[in-house]
Amino acid sequence: MPDVPATEHTLEQTEVTTDATRRTFVALGIGALGACYAGLIGYPVYQYLATPARKAAAQGAVTQAVLDGADKLPPGSSLMFKFGTTPAMLIHHTDGSWVALGAVCTHLACTVSYEPEQSRIYCACHGGVYDPKTGQNVAGPPPKPLTRYSVEVQDGRIVVTKA
Ligand code: FES
Fold first, then answer.
1. How far is the C-alpha of 46 from the C-alpha of 60, rounded, in Å?
2. Which of 54, 117, 132, 152 is least enclosed by beta carbons within 10 angstroms?
3. Is 141 within a domain?
4. What EC class does the entry list (predicted)?
5. Residue 2 maps to a domain
6. Cα–Cα distance measured from residue 69 to residue 105, given in angstroms and rounded to the nearest whole number
7. Taking a C-beta distance cutoff of 8 angstroms, is the pair 79, 98 a contact?
8. Start-end of H helices in 62-159
């Protein structure tokens, strides 16, 4: 084997090392871009999938809603409010009684409304009807009654709690 001058051998090794470093750099760059791309796609998908579970957990943690000034609600009228993240309604009946019910239809989750002149809670989506005193489903497709809450009239406010 012929003797290779020390300088040529060193130059060859330097080129090999530079090539390996360049390949490593490109591979790392591609890996980093791939990770960013996966994050950009994956995070919204994760948020989309996790939201119902997070909403359910948040809703489950809420046990009370305080409605300041709601005690002035005239008899025969209602007030929509949020119980946690869910629409709900407070009804002040003409006999003086108070009723708080969930305002989410048990059929396909449309928001229901109180119709005092017809003494009913009505869901306009498919004609569901509920009793405004009990929340019981009385006509149409709703399979279950509305969620019923306890109502307490305190000084200048109404406190609604999970029954
Ligand atoms: S969503 Fe209310 S009756 Fe269908």
1. 21
2. 117
3. yes
4. oxidoreductase
5. no
6. 27
7. no
8. none
Shared domain for 46 and 75, answered yes or no, is no
Output the CA 49–ligand 1 centroid distance in Å. 25
The rounded Å distance from CA 124 to ligand 1 centre is 7
Q: Closest ligand 1 atom to the C-alpha of 141?
A: 3
Q: Which helix (H) or strand (E) holds 32?
A: helix 6-61
The answer, yes or no, to whether any atom of ligand 1 lies below 6 A from the CB of 146, is no
- Same domain? For 18 and 93 the reply is no
For residue 108, give the nearest of 142, 131, 145, 59 by alpha carbon: 142
43 and 119, same domain (yes or no): no
Going 70 to 76 to 77 to 78, the CA torsion angle's sign is positive
Structural domain harbouring 52: 12-61
| pTM score, whole prediction | 0.68
47-103 residue pLDDT tens? 777 777 777 776 678 889 899 988 899 999 999 999 988 999 999 999 999 999 999
Q: Which two tokens stand for residue 154?
A: 């305190």
